[in-house]
Design goal:
The complex is a heteropentamer, with one copy of chain A, one copy of chain B, two copies of chain C and one copy of chain D. By secondary structure, chain B is of the alpha/beta class. Chain D contains 14 helices and no strands. Classes of the chains: A mainly alpha, B alpha/beta, C alpha+beta, D mainly alpha. Chains A and D meet through helix 1, helix 4, helix 5, helix 7 and helix 8 of A and helix 1, helix 4, helix 5, helix 6 and helix 7 of D. The structure holds adenosine-5'-triphosphate (2 copies) and magnesium ion (2 copies).
C-alpha cells in the first residue's frame, strides 16, 4: 500500500477518533489521578486537597496490605498465565475443527463469559465448600482429605486461580479462534505432506502463524491478570487474612470504601509503573526471536 | 439535571436522591409519600425524586453520590446508610436537621443515636432493622429440645445455654447447629455480631470514638470473640455455610435479619419456624440486639433548607413512615408507628418490633466507620481460623491497634 | 518405486453441483512418469489432491502398492507434492521451507544441508536461501516449492504445474533436471502441465482429461499420432489440429462448402469403407504441420492442394503460421519461415493425407484403427 | 472399507464425547441458571447438591412463575430496550472507531506511529475501575451527563480492540489491497469493502466482546444517568439481587433474560467466524 | 492511448542488498503493446509494480503522457493490472471481483452486467460467476484476474504472466482475445510473459531484461534476428541458440577442440575483418533450426558439415530435437521428424552459416552490424 510522503500521515486521521476518545476518558482521568496522588484527597472532602508531597508514595511502601497484595498478584500471574492461555488455545483448537455440534461447543466454552458472576460464584462456592462440596466429594473418591479451599489462606488464591482460568479462558479462546481462522489451509496441507503429524503441524505452522495473536493475547492476559479484582471481591472479599487481596482491589477499596483517593492514586501510579515494567519484560520475552511486532 | 442550582433561597423545588428502585414496594410507597407532600405542604414546595438502585452495601448509589460530590452536583436531600452519618457530617456534606424534625421523642433511641454526630442530629432513619435467631421447630423437637428450654425476650438464654442447645442439635443431626453467616465479611459481621460484644460489656471504641486499644481488646470484648471461636471450633457453626441451609432443613438455626421473615413466608411455606432472641453473656446477662437503617439527610448543597427540612420531616412523619414501613414489612423507627403496625403483622415481626424497642443498640458513629467495620469482620475471620490463631486475645490486641489507626 | 491404482474414483466438492472428477480409472506402474493434461478446470489438481489425501475421495478406491489408502492421512502416505499455488511457509526462510520435511523425518543436520545445497544449486536459489518467500519473485517462489518437494526423496512425487512461472530457458533446464532426477530415483511421478513440450518429453504415459473424465491414456506418441477422439486430437499439438466436416464419396472427401475435394489414401479408405462410412459424413482432422506449402509437395500431390487467402500470418523465428479460411473453418498451417505470406496473399496448400485423422461425426471417436 | 470408515467414525464419536464432557464443565452454570429460573427458590436449594439441580421443576406451571413476578415487579422491557440501545450503539461505535484506528496503525507508516502504538499498549495497563470519579468529572465537564452519549462514548475506544484490528489488518496480503487500489478504490473504500470483510473473524470477536462489555456494565450507567427511564437492564438485576429479601429464582430469571441476548449476539457473530474467509487472494486454498 | 516514459528508473527493496531494477529507460508510445521477457527474478514484476504505483520508485522519473507520476497514488493512475499471483478478493464472488472496479467508477448496474457477461463469455467463466475464488481451479482463478482487469477499460493495461496457468489451447484463444482487445481499444499495454510465442505474436516491441537491466528493446523480429548480445540471443528462441567459442582464421572459424572448421560467408567475414577480429577468438551462435540434416543441404554445403553422436533425441510430433556434443558444448538441433535418430547414432549436420551470429568474446555484444 502507498506509504509515501504526506500520504502516510493520512494514518493520523484514522487513528485520531480513537485517540481522542482514549485521551478524554482514559488519559485525562489518569493524569488527574496522578495529580491527586500528591494530595490527601478524600472523596468526601473534594474541596480540601492538601499537597502532601511524596507522603502517599512513602506510605505505599510501608503498607503491609499493599505489599501482601503484590505478593498475591505475583502468585496469581505465575499460575494463571500458563493455565488460562493454554486452556484458551486448547479450546480454540478444539472448536476450530469442523465437527458436528460445533456451535454448541463454542457456546459452552464461552458460557462462563456470559453468565453473571453471581451465578458463577454461587455454584463455585458450592463446589468448593469445604464440608460437603462437590470437589471434596470427588477428592474423597481418591482418598484425599477434604480441603478447606476458599477458607484457607494457603489455598484460597489457588481456588481463585482455578475459577478465574475457568471463567476467563473463553475470552481468549475467542481471540485465538479469530487468529486461527486466518491461517491458510494450504499451509497445513503442505506440512501434512511433509510428514508433519498433528502435533508438529501445531508447533511448526499454527504457533508461528499465530504469533502476532499470541503475543497480543499474552500481553493483554498478563495485563488483565494484574487487574484482577472481581473474583476475589465476590468470592473472598480479599480474605482470608488478605491472602487473596489484590492490588487493584486494594486500590479500589482504599479509594472508594475508605475514600482515600489521594493515597489510592499514589498506589495506582506505583502499580501502573510495576505493570509497565513487567509488561515490557514480558513482551521482550514473548517477542524473543520474533521480528515484525513492534 | 443535577447541576441546576442557580436557584435562590426561596426556591421551592427540592431534589432528592434515594437508593431504592421506584419499582419496589418501598419505592412505590415513597412515590406516594412524595405525591402527598407535594400536594399537602402549604409553602408550595415541589419535591422530585431520583431513584438510584444500589448494589450490595451501597455500591452504585454511593459511587454516584461520591461522583456528584466531587463535581458539585449533589441534590438537596439524599438517603444515606446509618454508618455513613459521621463521615458525611464530618465532611460537611450534610447539615444538621434537628430543628426541622418534629416529635423527636417518638423516635427510637437507636435512630437518634445513629443520626447524631457531635451532639447534633444530621440524619434521621425512617425504619429500623434487626437480627434474630431463627429456628426450625421440627428439628428442635426431633433433637429433643423442649419448648421450655427456649428463650424469650423476657427470659433470654446465656451463651452457655445456647451452646448446650447447639450441642444437642449437632449431636443429633451431625451438622452445624446454626448458620451465623460467618462467611459474610461485609458490614453484616459487625452489624450482627457486635451485640455479642456489647452484651459482654465490651465495646469497639470508647464512647467518644477516639480509642480502640483497651476497648476492642478488653477482656469483655475478647470473651465475645472467644465465644465465636468456640462455636466454630466445636463445630456448632461453620465458616462456610451452605446457602439457605436453614431454609432447606440442613441447619436447625440461622442468625439473620428481619427480611428472612418474608423469604420464609413466601418461599418456604412448609417450614415450621420461630425466632429467638440473642443469647446473652452469662456474666452480664445483658440483652442486646443490632439496629440500623438508611436515613434521610439534608446536603450542604441544599439552598432552601426550610423546604428540604420540611420534606424530611414529612417523610419521617407517622403517616408517611407507616406507609413505607408497611409496604416493605420493615421495623418502624417511631414508637407510635410500632403501635400502629403491631396488630397488622405476624408474630415474628411482632417479636422483632419488641426486640428492637427493648434491646436495640446503635452502631458506633465513627468517621472511619468503613475501615472499622472491615477490621471487625477481619477479626471475626481471624478468630474463626482457630487453628491458625488459637490465641484470641492476641488477635484482639493486634486488631485493636489496627482500629486505633483509623480513629486518629 | 510404488504402484498406484485409481479405481472408479469420483469427486464432488461439498458445495458443488457436479462431479469434478468422474469414474477415474488409472493404474500407474512403479517408476512410471505420468503426465496429466487437460483444459483448465478439468480436474487435474483435484485428482492430485485426492492422491495426496488432501481431498476426500467421494467414491471409488485409491491404492498404493495394492493397499487401499482412501482413509490414510496424508502424512502417512509419504508423498512429496509441488502445489499449484506453492503453499510456501511464509514464516520460514527458503532454507527452512526446504528443510522442514527432512527435519520431521529426522534426517541429520549435515545431510539436510547437503541436500538443500544441492537442490538450491540446481534451482538457482543459492543466494536466496535466507530470504522469506515474501521477498521473492514469482518464479523464485515456484522454484522453492519445487525444491521443497525434490529434497524429500519420497517414493511418490506429485507436481502441479511446477514450472508455469519460469522463463523458457530455465524451464528447459528444470525440465531436464526433473527428467534426470526421475531417472536417478525412479520415483513414481504424476505431473500436471499445460506445456506440450513438457508433457511430450517427460511422460512415460500421458493422461488426457476433460470435464473430470479420462479421454485417453497413452505414450506421448500414441496420444499424438493416434488420438482417441476429436478432443484429444484437438488438445494435443500446438497449434491445434484443424477439423473439417466432410463427406466420403467415391474415395474422395469433400467439405460441405465445396472448398476442397481430395482423395483418401487407399489404406485409410479401406478402413473407413469397412466400417461403413462410405457416403457418410465424417470429421477429418489435419495437423498444421501436415499442411505443406513447399513447391515440391504441391507438385507431387496436385490433388491434395487447396487454395485460400491468408487472414493472419505469424512469423515465429524458424517457422511461420498461416491462418486461412477453408471449408467454413479456420485452417492453421505451420510452414517454413521461407514460405511466409502476408495477410491477403493467396496461397496454395497441400494436405498430407497419410497423416490425416478421421472421426465419427456423432461420437467423435477415432476411426483410424 | 466399511471397517475403516467405522474406525474413523469411532474416532469422531469418542472425541466428540470427550469434548461434550468438557463442554458441560463450562456450561453447567448456564444450565443451572436457566433451570433454576424455572422452579421455586425452595427447590433450587433443595436440589443443589444432586443432579436435579440441572432439571427444571417437575411442575410445568412453576416454570414461568419467577418470570411473571419479575415482569410484574419491573418494566423489564424498557430496561431491555435501553440495554439493547446502549450495547448496539457502543458495539457499532467500537467496531468503527477501533477498526479505523487499527487500519491506521497497520497500513500507514505515519510519523509517530510506533510511539503512539507503544502508548496504546501502555494504556492497556490503566485500570478503568479506579478512575470512575475522574471519568465522571470529565463527562460532566464536557457536558454529556444524563445523555446516552455518556454511557456509550467512554467505552467505545479500547486499546485492546485497536490492537486486535491492527494485527488482523497487518495479516492481509498487500496484494489484495493493491488490487483494490488499482481498481480505483479510495483508502476508505479499501477499508470498508476489502479489509473489514476479510477480517470478519476479528470484527465478530470485537463485536461480541464490546457488546458483552457494554451489556454487563452497571455502575457507570448508573452514575451518569439520573432518569431511571434510561437505566439499563443491569440496574434491575442488581436491584433484584440486592433488595432483601432476595428471591433466588427471580434473580435467576432476570439473569436468564439478560443472558439470552448475549448468547444470541454471540451466535450471530460466530456465524461469520465459522464461514471464515478460507483463503487469501493469491490462490491459497 | 497514453504515452509512458521511464527515465533512469532504479528500484531497491528496503531489505535488499542490490538494486532489483537498474537504470531502466523505456519510452512507450501510445497504443503500443510492449512485452517484457527475462529470466525469473530479473525485475519484470517489480517494474510493472512501479508503473502501477505499488512500489516506490527509488530513483528516476516515471511519466504518463509527459506528466511525472512518481508520487501519484495508484488509484489515480487509472491502470488496470493482472497480478502474477492473481490477488483476487477472497470474500467476493467472481462476479463481484470483476464488478468492484466498475462500481467504484460509478458505472451503471446494467453496464457492469453487460461488461461482465461479455468478459466471462470470452474467458469461459460464465458458470462460475457466483463462486468464490476458493472454489475455483488455478486456471479459473487466473482467468478471473484477467477478467477483472479487462472489464475496466483503463488506458493502461499491465499484465503479469496472465496466461501461465492455462492450457495450451485456452492460451491460444486467450492470446488471440488479448490481441483483439488491444486492437479494439488501443490500450497502451505492458505484458510480462515467459512464453516465446506470446511474446513474439503479441508484442509491438519486446523488452529483454536481465538482472534488472534492459538488454535490448526491439520488434520481435529484431530481437530474434539481430540479438544485441549473447544473452538475448540465448534467451530468445526455443530451444536456445547454440554457442561455440571459436577462432577466426583464414576466413574459417574453428572451435577450440578442433571439432569443426567452417568457412564464413563473405559478407559476414568482411564485417568481422573490418572490426579487426581476424585471428581473434569470438563467440559464434547458431540456432537449432539452422542446423540441417536434410541430405540436400549436406550435399550443397559440404564444408559446413559437422559430425557427432546423438546423446538424446526428442520426438515432438512434427519435428525432432537432437542433442549432440560438439566442440565441448551441447549442440541442440531441431530437424524434421523424418530425420529422427536414436541416441548413439552417428549424424551429419550442416550449419547454415548465413544465419550464424558472432559476438565479442569479452563484452558478448553482437558483431553482426
Ligand atoms: N519484497 C522484496 N524484497 C526484497 N527483494 C525482492 C522483493 N520482491 C522481489 N525481490 C527481488 O527482486 C528481484 C526482482 O523481482 P521481480 O519480482 O521483479 O522478478 P520477476 O522478473 O517478476 O521474476 P518472475 O518471473 O520470477 O516473477 C528478485 O531477485 C527478487 O528476489
Ligand atoms: N473447493 C472447491 N469447491 C467447489 N468446486 C471446486 C473446488 N475446487 C475446484 N473446484 C472445481 O472443480 C473443477 C476441477 O478443479 P481442478 O482444480 O481440479 O482443476 P484443474 O484441472 O487443476 O484446473 P487448472 O488447470 O485450471 O488448475 C473445476 O471446475 C473447479 O471449479
Ligand atoms: Mg489445477
Ligand atoms: Mg514476477
Amino acid at each position: 500500500m502507498q506509504t509515501k510522503g504526506l500520504r502516510r500521515q493520512v494514518g493520523w486521521l484514522y487513528v485520531l477518533p480513537a485517540l481522542l476518545l482514549l485521551l478524554t476518558f482514559l488519559i485525562i482521568p489518569f493524569l488527574m489521578s496522578f495529580s491527586y496522588s500528591f494530595t490527601d484527597y478524600n472523596i468526601l472532602t473534594p474541596n480540601v486537597k492538601n499537597f502532601v508531597g511524596l507522603q502517599n508514595y512513602i506510605n505505599t511502601f510501608k503498607d503491609p496490605v499493599f505489599l501482601q497484595s503484590l505478593k498475591n498478584i505475583a502468585q496469581f500471574i505465575v499460575f494463571i498465565m500458563p493455565i488460562q492461555v493454554g486452556a484458551a488455545l486448547g479450546l480454540a483448537l478444539i472448536v476450530n475443527k469442523k465437527r458436528p455440534g460445533n456451535m454448541f461447543f463454542k457456546i459452552s466454552f464461552f458460557a462462563p463469559q456470559v453468565v453473571s458472576l453471581t451465578v458463577v460464584s454461587i455454584l463455585w462456592m458450592y463446589i468448593l465448600n469445604p464440608d460437603q462440596g462437590l470437589l471434596n466429594g470427588i477428592l474423597g473418591i481418591f482418598h484425599i482429605k477434604p480441603q478447606p479451599f476458599l477458607t484457607s489462606p494457603k489455598q484460597a488464591m489457588f481456588a481463585i486461580i482455578g475459577v478465574s482460568a475457568w471463567q476467563g479462558a473463553g475470552y481468549q479462546m475467542l481471540i485465538f479462534l479469530s487468529g486461527l481462522q486466518s491461517i491458510p489451509q494450504s499451509l497445513y496441507e503442505a506440512a501434512e505432506l511433509d510428514g508433519a503429524n498433528a502435533w508438529q503441524r501445531f508447533i511448526h505452522i499454527t504457533l508461528p502463524m499465530l504469533k502476532p495473536t499470541s503475543v497480543m493475547i499474552l500481553t493483554t492476559t498478563f495485563i488483565s491478570a494484574f487487574n484482577l479484582m472481581t473474583q476475589p471481591m465476590i468470592m473472598t472479599q480479599g480474605g482470608p487474612q488478605n491472602s487473596t487481596m489484590t492490588p487493584i482491589y486494594y486500590i479500589y477499596r482504599t479509594g472508594f470504601t475508605d475514600r482515600q483517593l489521594g493515597y489510592a492514586s499514589a498506589m495506582s501510579v506505583i502499580y501502573g509503573i510495576v505493570i509497565i515494567i513487567f509488561t515490557i519484560i514480558q513482551r521482550k520475552i514473548t517477542n524473543a526471536g520474533g521480528d515484525e511486532n513492534e | 439535571g443535577c447541576g441546576n442550582k442557580q436557584s435562590s433561597n426561596n426556591d421551592k423545588n427540592i431534589t432528592m436522591w434515594v437508593h431504592i428502585s421506584d419499582e419496589d414496594p418501598e419505592g412505590k410507597a415513597l412515590a406516594q409519600n412524595i405525591k402527598e407532600f407535594n400536594k399537602e405542604n402549604k409553602e408550595g414546595y415541589k419535591a422530585k425524586v431520583q431513584y438510584i438502585p444500589r448494589s450490595g452495601s451501597g455500591g452504585g448509589y454511593e459511587d454516584k453520590v461520591n461522583a456528584a460530590l466531587n463535581s458539585g452536583s449533589l441534590p438537596d436531600v439524599l438517603t444515606l446508610d446509618g454508618p455513613n452519618t459521621a463521615a458525611y457530617a464530618n465532611s460537611k456534606i450534610i447539615q444538621p436537621i434537628g430543628k426541622y424534625i418534629s416529635d423527636k421523642d417518638d423516635f427510637l433511641k437507636t435512630i437518634i443515636d445513629q443520626g447524631t454526630y457531635k451532639d447534633k442530629l444530621y440524619a434521621i432513619g425512617y425504619s429500623e432493622s434487626s437480627v434474630g435467631f431463627y429456628y426450625n421447630k421440627k428439628m428442635f423437637k426431633e433433637a429433643g429440645i423442649k419448648d421450655s428450654e427456649l428463650p424469650t425476650l423476657e427470659k433470654p438464654w446465656t451463651w452457655d445455654q445456647f451452646i448446650n442447645i447447639c450441642k444437642k442439635l449437632k449431636d443429633h443431626f451431625h451438622e452445624p447447629a446454626i448458620n451465623m453467616n460467618l462467611n459474610d465479611h461485609s458490614e453484616m459481621a459487625l452489624y450482627s455480631l457486635a451485640p455479642l460484644v456489647w452484651s459482654a460489656g465490651g465495646s469497639i471504641t470508647n464512647p467518644a470514638g477516639t480509642k480502640a486499644e483497651g476497648y476492642f481488646n478488653s477482656k469483655q470484648t475478647t470473651s465475645a470473640f472467644q465465644f465465636i471461636q468456640n462455636m466454630v471450633k466445636d463445630g456448632y457453626t461453620t465458616i462456610s455455610p451452605k446457602d439457605k441451609g436453614f431454609e432447606t432443613g440442613k441447619y436447625a438455626m440461622t442468625m439473620t435479619g428481619t427480611w428472612e421473615v418474608q423469604t420464609l413466608d413466601n418461599q418456604y411455606k412448609n417450614l415450621k419456624w420461630g425466632v429467638l432472641p440473642y443469647p446473652v453473656s452469662p456474666k452480664t446477662k445483658k440483652e442486646v440486639s443490632p439496629t440500623g437503617s438508611w436515613q434521610y439527610a439534608m446536603t450542604s448543597a441544599a439552598k432552601n433548607k426550610k423546604a428540604a427540612g420540611a420534606l424530611i420531616n414529612f417523610l419521617v412523619s407517622k403517616k408517611a413512615m407507616y406507609r413505607s414501613d408497611m409496604a416493605n414489612t420493615v421495623l418502624p423507627a417511631r414508637k407510635s408507628v410500632s403501635k400502629m403496625m403491631e396488630p397488622k403483622v405476624n408474630s415474628a415481626m411482632k417479636f422483632f418490633i419488641k426486640q428492637n424497642q427493648t434491646t436495640g443498640h446503635a452502631r458506633p458513629v465513627l468517621v472511619n466507620y468503613p475501615q472499622v467495620t472491615r477490621t471487625f469482620a477481619e477479626t471475626v475471620q481471624n478468630v474463626t481460623l482457630y487453628k491458625k490463631n488459637p490465641d484470641v486475645q492476641k488477635v484482639m490486641n493486634q486488631q485493636a491497634q489496627v482500629i486505633q489507626k483509623y480513629l486518629k | 518405486m510404488v504402484k498406484i491404482d485409481l479405481d472408479h474414483v469420483y469427486k464432488k466438492y461439498d458445495n458443488a453441483k457436479n462431479y469434478s472428477v468422474k469414474d477415474f480409472n488409472l493404474h500407474i506402474n512403479p517408476q512410471e512418469f505420468i503426465v496429466f493434461v487437460g483444459p483448465s478446470g478439468c480436474g487435474k489438481s483435484t485428482t492430485l489432491r485426492m492422491i495426496a489425501g488432501l481431498e476426500d475421495i467421494t467414491k471409488g478406491t485409491f491404492k498404493i502398492d495394492g493397499k487401499v489408502m482412501n482413509d490414510v492421512a496424508p502424512k502417512n502416505r509419504d508423498i512429496a507434492m509441488v502445489f499449484q499455488n506453492y503453499a510456501l511457509y511464509p514464516h520460514m526462510t527458503v532454507y527452512d521451507n526446504m528443510a522442514f520435511g527432512l527435519k520431521l523425518n529426522k534426517v541429520s543436520k549435515s545431510e539436510i544441508d547437503k541436500k538443500i545445497q544441492k537442490a538450491s544449486e540446481i534451482l538457482g536459489l543459492k543466494e536466496y536461501l535466507k530470504r522469506k518467500p515474501a521477498a521473492l519473485s514469482g518464479g523464485q517462489r515456484q522454484r522453492v516449492a519445487l525444491g521443497r518437494a525434490i529434497v524429500r526423496d519420497a517414493p511418490i512425487f506429485l507436481m502441479d504445474e511446477p514450472l508455469s512461472n519460469l522463463d523458457a530457458k530455465l524451464r528447459v533446464t528444470m525440465r531436464a533436471e526433473i527428467a534426470k532426477i526421475h531417472q536417478q530415483l525412479k520415483t513414481t511421478t504424476i505431473y500436471v502441465t499445460h506445456d506440450q513440450t513438457e508433457a511430450m518429453t517427460l511422460a512415460d504415459r500421458i493422461v488426457v482429461l476433460k470435464d473430470g473424465q479420462i479421454q485417453q491414456v497413452g505414450t506421448p506418441m500414441e496420444v499424438y499420432n493416434k488420438p482417441a477422439n476429436v478432443f484429444v486430437a484437438g488438445f494435443i499439438g500446438s497449434p491445434a489440429m484443424n477439423f473439417f466436416n466432410v463427406k466420403l464419396e467415391n474415395g474422395l472427401v469433400h467439405d460441405i462448402n465445396g472448398d476442397f475435394n481430395i482423395p483418401v489414401p487407399e489404406g485409410k479408405l479401406n478402413i473407413l469403407k469397412d466400417k461403413g462410412y462410405d457416403g457418410q459424413e465424417l470429421i477429418m482432422g489435419i495437423r498444421p504441420e501436415d499442411v505443406h506449402t513447399e513447391q515440391v509437395f504441391l507438385e507431387s500431390f496436385p490433388h491434395n492442394v487447396v487454395e485460400s487467402t491468408v487472414v493472419v500470418s505469424e512469423l515465429l523465428g524458424s517457422e511461420t503460421q498461416l491462418y486461412t479460411n477453408l471449408g467454413g473453418t479456420e485452417l492453421v498451417s505451420k510452414v517454413d519461415a521461407r514460405d511466409f505470406a502476408k495477410p491477403g496473399a493467396h496461397v496454395k496448400m497441400g494436405f498430407e493425407m497419410n497423416k490425416v485423422h478421421f472421426f465419427d461425426k456423432d461420437s467423435e471417436e477415432t476411426l483410424d484403427n | 472399507m466399511n471397517r475403516i470408515i467405522s474406525r474413523k467414525t469411532f474416532h469422531i464419536v469418542w472425541t466428540t464425547v470427550l469434548i461434550t464432557l468438557l463442554a458441560l464443565f463450562f456450561l453447567f452454570p448456564l444450565v443451572w441458571m436457566i433451570v433454576s429460573s424455572m422452579k421455586p427458590e425452595q427447590q433450587i436449594y433443595n436440589n443443589i447438591s444432586n443432579f436435579k439441580a440441572f432439571l427444571p421443576s417437575a411442575n410445568i406451571s412453576e416454570w414461568g412463575k419467577a418470570y411473571s413476578s419479575i415482569f410484574h415487579r419491573f418494566n423489564v422491557f424498557r430496561y431491555i430496550l435501553n440495554s439493547v440501545f446502549y450495547a448496539v450503539s457502543l458495539t457499532i461505535g467500537s467496531l468503527l472507531v477501533n477498526s479505523l484506528a487499527g487500519y491506521g496503525f497497520a497500513k500507514y507508516k505515519f510519523t509517530g506511529r510506533k510511539l503512539i502504538f507503544g502508548l496504546l499498549i501502555a494504556m492497556l495497563v490503566i485500570p478503568g475501575a479506579t478512575l470512575l470519579i475522574q471519568q465522571f468529572q470529565v463527562a460532566k465537564t464536557i457536558g454529556i451527563l444524563n445523555t446516552p452519549l455518556a454511557v456509550i462514548l467512554p467505552g467505545m475506544s479500547s486499546p485492546f480492540y485497536i490492537y486486535m484490528f491492527r494485527n488482523a489488518f497487518a495479516e492481509i496480503p498487500d496484494s489484495v489491497t493493491e488490487a483494490a487500489e488499482l481498481d480505483g478504490a479510495s483508502n476508505l473504500r479499501i477499508f470498508w469493502n476489502i479489509l473489514l470483510p476479510m477480517t470478519m473473524p476479528t470484527v465478530a470477536t470485537v463485536g461480541t466482546l464490546s457488546f458483552i462489555g457494554s451489556w454487563n456494565d452497571y455502575v457507570w450507567p448508573l452514575m451518569v444517568l439520573t432518569n431511571s427511564d434510561q437505566f439499563p437492564l443491569q440496574v434491575a438485576i442488581t436491584n433484584i439481587n440486592n433488595t432483601q429479601p432476595v428471591y433466588m429464582n427471580q434473580v435467576m430469571s432476570i439473569l436468564t433474560i439478560s443472558t439470552v441476548p448475549l448468547i444470541l449476539v454471540y451466535i450471530f457473530f460466530q456465524k461469520y467466524l465459522v464461514q471464515g474467509m478460507g483463503s487469501a487472494g493469491n490462490g491459497d486454498k
